[in-house]
Each structure stands twice: as C-alpha cells, then as structure tokens.
Amino acid sequence: THKTDLTVSQFKQKHAKIFKPTVITDCHSHWPLVTGEGPRKILGDLYGDSSVKVAPRCFTNATPGEIKVKDWLVYAQGQHDEDPMDLADSDFAEKFPALTHLYSVPEYFPDDIYGKLGEERPPFRWITMSTDRSGSTWHQDPSATVAWNALVEGRKRWAIYPPEVIPPGMTSLSKQSPFAGTESPTQLQWYLEVYPMLSDEEKPIEFIQHPGECVYMPPNWWHMVLNLEPTFSVTHNYVDEFNYVDCMKDLLFDDIEAFYKLRAMNRDGSGNNPSASTIDFMEYVDVSIKEGFHHPALLIESYDQVELWVDVTRKALQKAELIGSEEVREEDYHCITQGQNPTVIGKERVFKYYCPIFSIDSSDREIFALKALTDVKEVPNAIADGNLREVETELVFDPKLVAKIVEDN
C-alpha cells in the first residue's frame, strides 16, 4: 500500500487493530540514509574500526559474535558461504550515534509504550547489513511485540504464517509444548529441503520486499527472511495500544520486573496507553491461580486478593468433600498472611496454602505436627491435605492445601 493511500487512522483500523500484516511503500523515502551517500559508505567512512555484532557466526579472533565494520565489508564482497553472517547490531545507537539522525520512526508507528522502560528496556532496534543468502530463520518476535522493517537497499524474500500455525520443518525443543522452544533450519536450507515438499495449502504467505518498502509485522506472527542480494534495513520492535495487553501477559513469564514497572506507570498515569486505565492486571493473577502460579511475585501479590482465595477455598472444600449445599460467602472469610503462605479463616475451618517455591517440605512438617497432636484440644485437627490439581509441567507452581477444623474456643 502506498502511503498516499493509507492514512495513520486507516492503518490502525485496517491493520494494527486486527493484527494484519502489510507492506507500506514510500514512508521512509525522505530518510538521509536513503537520499545520502548510502549506508555502507557512511558506516565504512565513519565507523570502519568499530566492532559490531554479527550473526550467525564470526571468523575473526575478536570478541565472539563481533567483527570490525571494515572487515565485514571486505568479507561481504567475496563470501560464498551457505549461511553468511549478517551485521545485525541492537546497540548501534550507542556505537554509531550519527546513524540515529539519518532515519526516523515512520508516522504509522509513533506510539511505543515499551519505551517507558528507559534504560531497562530489552533490545528493540537493529540495523542489519546483509549479504545474499543470509537472513533470519523462522521466529516470533519476543514478548508479543510488533515490528516494522524499513528496507533501504537490496531485496528480501519474506515468508510468514499466522500465530497458530507452526512453520513446517521446525523442531520442538520441548515434549510438553511445541511453543516452549523451537529450532529451525537455516532460511536457505528450509527453501531447499522443506519448501518443495509442501502443498499449496501448506505454503506460507510470501512476498518480496523492495527498497523503499516498510513491512509491518503484527505480534506473534511467524516470519522468516531470505536476503536475495546485499541489503540494508532498519527495524524496531514496539508496543502500542493494541498489543499492549498481549505484551503484558508475555512479560509475566519473560520479564516480571518489566511487567511490574509498566503496570505501575499505568497506575500513576505516566503510561501513554489510552486504554491502560481500564485494564485490571490482577485478572492475570486470577488466571495464574486457576492454572498454577508462574512466578513467585504473582503468588505473593495475590495474597491480598481475598476474593481470589475464597474461590480457591470453595474448590478445596469440594475436593475434600466437606461442602454440600453449603455456600462459601466472601463475607464469612478473611485472609491473613506473613508474606509466604496465605491462610483463609472461616467460621468453622481454616485453610492454609503452601507453595513449594518457598519451602518444599514446610507443609509436610506442619501436617505431621498436627496429626501428632490430635489429642490436644487447642490444636486444630488436620482433616485433608493435598494439591488442588495435578500438574505435569515443572514450569507451573501449585499451592499445597491443608484444611483444618478449629475448636469453638
């Protein structure tokens, strides 16, 4: 779509809001990187002796994964590798400050909530200077971020699949879930060995990106890129109002500190997401209670949410077959804790929950003590214990339950 046929408002409604990929033409033709002497000459003249990150491998004695710009330019001219190394550096703003003045974020992607993390923000922008046959293997961008890729020189062949379709030829690194970890053949190997075996229905969406075109890639879309000739591009990963919630959900597992910082910004009004004030992120803690705790910090924070633990307590009563037609009303219970194992106190029963992330055998010790003191009236009797549900994966934490009778006095 040419930029004259797509306003920012139309882009949001037709693409960003519904996570639909697109290619926008001529939205970065004004960049000095495009109109000047060319990025390769600029880098070579200004920063020839600077070290840059390369992928997938390096043949020098420099720091692993790095090479000098001038050496890479020489390598790129004469290489015949099956899997060439790209110059792909996420620290270019610090290493090559002059480059940051030679391009600007296209008008379609101005909002970036991720930027509120400041220096704690994960890598989010790259310059890539590539040779033919190089590129990127099948992958999804981290933490449900959105990406834009503006091509300055060369041509790229893109292949993409929607989030729910795992690209053929990928190998799962986990027996429990294909999404827990995957590895992919190189882009050239995939086109030579996997692609010819696919039916038309199995083949990915494909297109060729030309200079002056900018690719918008929605969150969680699988994509692979094969450089058809030497290329130079700029790419950013960002978070906007539409993928904000998905990103926060991923941060619960990928970067819990970033999750809490972004959420705190929304609470004090320093976030720039227009819908952030309507999002109650405790709902994710609720999901964790239902499906198992995925991080100690979420478990601890949930202790202050009495209504969540009353719901768990109701299930505990049913599991222990101690509830019939009786209702568990929130006003009949209250929750106390010292910061580790929450205790829900009712009129007749006390429910204490233990989590193995703090102490694996603390619940066993207390159960043993309670059972050993069954004849002492002042000590509650342990009447049921066990996990609320069975969990097969080690990545999920579940509280351990002890239900006890409290004497009237």
Give an overview of the whole structure.
The structure is a single chain. The protein is α+β, with helices and mostly antiparallel strands and 409 residues long. Helices cover 27% and strands 23% of the residues. It has twelve helices and 19 strands. The chain has helices at residues 8-16, 32-35, 39-47, 69-78, 92-95, 187-194, 244-254, 256-268, 282-291, 296-302, 306-319, 362-372; strands at residues 22-25, 51-55, 66-68, 86-89, 125-130, 135-139, 146-153, 156-161, 171-172, 182-183, 205-209, 213-217, 222-227, 231-238, 334-336, 343-345, 349-354, 381-387, 400-405. Strand 15 and strand 16 (343-345) form a beta hairpin. Helix 9 (282-291) packs across helix 10 (296-302). The protein is elongated, with a radius of gyration of 27 Å. Mean pLDDT is 74; it is low at 57-64, 173-181, 273-291 and 381-409.
Strand order of the largest sheet: 1-12-7-14-5-4-2-3
Average per-residue pLDDT, rounded, comes to: 74
Low-confidence regions = 57-64, 173-181, 273-291, 381-409
According to DSSP, the number of beta strands is 19
- Could you give the distance between the termini? 76 Å
Cα gyration radius (Å): 27 Å
What is the tally of helical segments? 12
Structural class of the secondary elements?
Answer: alpha+beta
Write the layout of secondary structure elements.
Elements lengths: L7 H9 L5 E4 L6 H4 L3 H9 L3 E5 L10 E3 H10 L7 E4 L2 H4 L29 E6 L4 E5 L6 E8 L2 E6 L9 E2 L9 E2 L3 H8 L10 E5 L3 E5 L4 E6 L3 E8 L5 H11 L1 H13 L13 H10 L4 H7 L3 H14 L14 E3 L6 E3 L3 E6 L7 H11 L8 E7 L12 E6 L4
Antiparallel strand pairs: 1-12, 2-3, 2-4, 4-5, 5-14, 6-13, 7-12, 7-14, 8-11, 8-13, 9-10, 15-16, 16-17, 17-19, 18-19
Helix pairs in contact: 7-8, 9-10
